[in-house]
Amino acid sequence: KTLGQWVNQQRVVYKKNALSSDRIQQLNSIDFIWDVPDHSWMENFNLLCIWNIRLGELREFHIAHGHMDVPSDDKNLFDWVSEQRLEYCRKELGEFSTMIQEREKKLDEIGFQWKIEALARNHDSKWCNYFDQLIEVEESSKKQ
Questions:
Q1: Is 2 helix (H, G, I), strand (E, B) or coil?
Q2: Burial class (CB in 10 A: 0-12, 13-18, 19+), 91
Q3: pLDDT at residue 47 in the model
Q4: Which of 78, 99, 101, 111 could make an SS bond with 87 (beta carbons 3.0 to 4.6 A apart)?
């Protein structure tokens, strides 16, 4: 048994009112901490906060740039966007995934493109639009 396991056992026995008053006194004499916050809960809460922060950053990026193709030099957001696509693929394959329905819905609401091919098509479409505009400008300048 490790010290950590022993410490945990003291807390469990104490909560069951099965720890002797002498032992309670001894542990209290060294300022023993009886109630430890659930670290997994805190960790999950922090991850949820980070997820929502990144979603907000992606919204702002989309508003500023008109697309969601985050460059790799914006490492935190780029990695987060890549992770969302990976988790979506895992979900689609029936594997364990953190992509819950609520997250998927929030990303869908801002027009998130799940597949890289969709991004490529979108870039091709934008390129074609600009090219068409360029042709129009060229033709109108020739008419003048």
A1: coil
A2: middle
A3: 83
A4: 99
